[in-house]
């Protein structure tokens, strides 16, 4: 590969570099291929390594690149379209739910969670841990918060800790009549526990979907689901299916 120097442009240098790198990914690299190290890339494009890192971070945010532990920076595959929602509004754990239940614990939640649940800050809350896998790769991790008041009969159920306890909590939640749900999406950075569950580096871009489940005029459960922003494109609606979405420019390369 020859050396490419960036010309003076009115846009930020890292953004222009991002465009040049994107074109190089289309023409010179294949999915899964490892990029040269930062020193070599910076020398090739005649930029400071700080500028290069900004461009690489932007491409990671756009889903073009992936940073992998012990591997380096690789060309990402097309984003996986992950449907958020089912054919009809339903409680978590209902038939057709694609999440895998992993664990459950009971503790007083963070103040922000208690406020979102509109429960007392000293009220213990069941936290159900779930994960989602698509095409063999982890794409999301979820914390599902359920106040004790939403599952008052759980104390009479003999279920051990872990996944069995989590499933018992969800079964009891289903006794309530679901009145509705609402969701919000925001861009965030992976915390250490989320990064580990999603096989990403801490601080990697993620999409956080917060869903409130309403029953008896109150928030009966709160879901905070963290999706990999580098591989996921969230779709909302009633399809409930999973599709593969590709950028038209990438398909043409």
Helix content: 25-40%
**N- and C-termini, Cα separation:** 18 Å
Strand proportion, as a percent range, falls in 25-35%
Tell me the series of helices and strands, N- to C-terminal: HHHEEEEHEEHEHEEEEH
What spatial form do the alpha-carbon principal axes imply?
Answer: elongated
Identify the strand order in the major beta sheet.
4-5-6-9-8-7
Tell me how many strands there are: 11
Largest sheet: 6 strands, antiparallel
Low-confidence stretches: 239-253
Structural class assignment: alpha+beta
* Mean model confidence by pLDDT: 82
Rg (CA only): 22 Å
Number of helices: 7
Topology:
Blueprint: H1 13-28, H2 38-45, H3 49-61, E1 65-68, E2 72-75, E3 80-84, E4 100-107, H4 111-117, E5 125-134, E6 137-147, H5 163-173, E7 180-189, H6 192-198, E8 205-215, E9 218-228, E10 232-236, E11 242-244, H7 248-252
Parallel strand pairs: 3-10
Antiparallel strand pairs: 1-2, 3-11, 4-5, 5-6, 6-9, 7-8, 8-9
